[in-house]
Amino acid sequence: MATWTQNEPTGVTKRRRWNLEDRASLNKLKHHIAEEGCPQMQYDLAKELLNNAIVEPNLAKGNQNQKAVNWLVSAAHNGHEDAAKLLRQCYNDGSGITAENADEVRRCLAMTPGERAARKAARELFACLSNGNEHITPKQLERKMRRIYNLQRKRRRRDDDRSSSSSEGEQEPECEPLEDVPTIDLANVERRRLITEAHLVSAASNYSAGQMPSVNDALTLSVPDPRSLDHVPCFYRMIFHPLIFFTLFYHRLLNLIVSIPNVIPLSVRCSVLVAISWWSSRHMLPLVSYYLSLGIMIWATCKMLKTKQQFVDFRIWSGLFLSYGDQNIEADIAEQRFLRNNMKPYLYFFCAFICNLIVYPLVTDAWLPHSELTIISGAFTFITMCVSMYASSHLLPDWLVIVSFAVNVLAKYPYEMDEVVSTRWRFLDLRVPTFSSFVIGNGIEFCLNCRTALYLFIPVLLIMMAKRSRWHGVYTFLIPHCVTLSWLQVCIATSQSSTVFGVMRAALGLAGIVLFLPLFGIVALLVPVFVAIDSLGLASEQLRWGSTALACGLVVVLSCILALNRATKKYITMLQLIMAVTTACLLVFPYMTSSFKDTPRFNAMPRVGLHSLTESNTLPWDRFHALCAQPFYEQPNKIKAQLRCSHLNGMPVTWEGSVTKVEISRVSNFLEDFIANYLPVWLGRMLRCLHGENISQHFKCDPNLDAQCEEWRSVIKTFNEQSGSCTLQRWNRYEYELLVKVGTKKSGRLLGRSATTDVILRAHHDFGNFTRFLSEGDVVLFYGILHNSRLLADNVQVKLKTIECVECRSRDLGTASIERVVAASPMDARLQDLMRGIKYLLNALLNPLITFK
């Protein structure tokens, strides 16, 4: 192509020079460089072709212009603005424009300089990451974007100059090799979506138009990966990773609320609106409008918060394109377009807010949970304020947002409704008038005071927000801040009718919703410990507390170790669920076996002392005596009377009689039976002293009332010194038998008969405190159920349910009862027991959020 000449002229300085012998070779080199994507060389070739077409018109002018247009299109796509201007001139003149390239030329000219620069940056980014391959992975792109974003944050934090920033940027590797596919685990392979150059170019176009690139759906930039805590058992995620747990919960809750309109079909929504229009009367329409507007406000606010999170991702895309682009990247314009494109939720919010304020005075207070609404509106107030404080890229919060919020609180807070402020915090009472007031209309008074001055200062602060960034702060700062002030207004309006207890209930309910899984995990671990320790029946209070604390600590440490171990962490959740179910059964079991002493377990029974039981409810004594008692004694063959009377089993009775004898009929102690029959003597003696008490401590008597008290104490002391034994008598369960003579002269005046019959009352263990104070001759009124009526028994037997003292020696005796539903079968009673036990369990877990009565 070039040869070096050796013959130099005489008297001339000797230097090397070369002569071009073949200009066609130089043109081939230019074409090769242009085809490699050099925009300047493409522009030079296009300009040369256009000039040749003008200088030599006899050549194939159309073919020359068409080639020039193709080169100009390529150069414009690569961000060459002079090529774009020349291409527009050719399009206006029609030079080189054909049917084949007209559409492509129009698309190229329709792009803004920023879009063309972004598309060029996307191509360079793909070339850098792919290393000649046809695709890249989302993990590569995400890692690169995070690296650039972190670098930019460091630059803003250090506030360095351009030179130091560029030097730091040179230290970052520009290109990354493609991932080694065999090293990727199966989970990443399944979720991976390969990204091609066309995807990145399309993302650049969407970015320039102010829209979130579709590629962003495969990335997790500003939020943690939704599956980042899948390796941790669900009940331990908040304990081991609290920040990630709450961040994921926040974003998942936003996504759930935002997706509600998409989940509900259009037909269902239309049907609901039609039903509301039919059912809405004059009084129901404000209520429906209020809750509908409140729901729209909540949905729109969540949509705004979701947009704020997407805006952070959008800024990361800006940093990516700025790193690979030139000065034509319009990052600020693209971000402003993104904010303008997402203004629709704000419109929905303010329309719903206006409707909410209009219908609020029309709704009856009984239909509004003011405390819950106060907590919800207060939560949205502080969430939106915290988000709007960091609307810019600065690390420090926006002081203007904080000042504006504080001024609004001082100006709108109802001081006259707050007793604390009105009586103690006098420095916050801004209602003191500083100027004279004037009545300017019917019910309108013009009054200037400190609060009025604050109200006048609010528009000044809002205008200062709007003036930022050449009035682009209207949708960047002002409108989001107005959402915060709107929720503040709702919070103030609802708080005036709320109560302290209601606010606490709502706050605990909200905390229960947020912390349900962690709290359930802790409860599932510790409640079984409490139940187990309580079932041991330890006599010493110190031993009880010490063993409880030790057991809880061991359970928590052991569960954490199991949750961290790879081999056992997948079983710990199931173990906790099994423990929770077992605990639930243990909590429900007492309801299935006996009653609580503090409140009735069953439906309310008529009190026997109030004479509310009629003959249709119970069997009177005179009728029973005529049907069963008298024939049983008079007839020599008692079989017929016994068979007839057996049909009365289970019938409720309310009789009155005189007590003749009280005794214990049966004693049961399952703990003593187990120790005596299944454990060795030395272990049984140890367990008796652990769960029971010393015999001398168990025996109690009063020497003033009992003449043999001292002798008993001496005998027991001697026996205790010899054997050192303990007793488990406090675990005894007794059944009592009361012999009552029914039909005495006292009751004869009431029943009209003088016949008497002995009735045996079988009393439950819970009647122990009552039966111990009964004496012979006490008159009682009892309610119970006939049992083995004249069948295989000499006396009438009644299962005692309620007993009331009519005339007793002891003044402490009143009424004792284990009332049950009249005429209820044992299975029905068990089912009712089970239902009440389940309600108790649910109340223990969900109260105060949900209460089952």
Automatic annotation (TrEMBL):
Residues 139-179 are annotated as: Disordered. Residues 731-853 form the Wolframin OB-fold domain. GO terms for biological process: adult locomotory behavior; calcium ion homeostasis; endoplasmic reticulum unfolded protein response; negative regulation of gene expression. Residues 118-208 form the Wolframin EF-hand domain. InterPro entries: TPR-like_helical_dom_sf (IPR011990), Wolframin_Cys-rich (IPR045400), Wolframin_EF-hand (IPR045460), Wolframin_fam (IPR026209), Wolframin_OB_fold (IPR045461), Wolframin_Sel1-like_rpt (IPR045458). GO terms for cellular component: endoplasmic reticulum membrane. Residues 621-730 form the Wolframin cysteine-rich domain. Keywords: Membrane, Transmembrane, Transmembrane helix. This is Uncharacterized protein, isoform A. It comes from Drosophila yakuba.
